[in-house]
Amino acid sequence: MSARSTSLLRLRGLVRKESLQIVRDPSSIGIAFVLPLVLLLIFGYGVSLDARGIRIALAAEVPGGAAASFLSAFRASPYFRPMVMRSPQAARAALVDHTVDAMVVLRASFGQDLFRAGGAPIQLVVNGVDANTGRLVTGYVQGVWEGWLERSARERGVRLRPPARLEPRIWFNPDVRSRNFLVPGLIAVIMTLIGALLTALVMAREWERGTMEALMVTPVTMLEVIAGKLLPAFALGLGGLAVSVGLAVGVFGVPLRGSAWVLIAASSLFLLVALGLGLLISTVARSQFVAGQVAIIVTFLPAFLLSGFIFDIGSMPAVVQAITHVIPARYYVTILQTVFLAGDVWSVIVPNAAALAMMAVVLLTAAVRRTRRTLR
Question: Are residues 148 and 190 in the same domain?
Answer without folding.
Answer: no
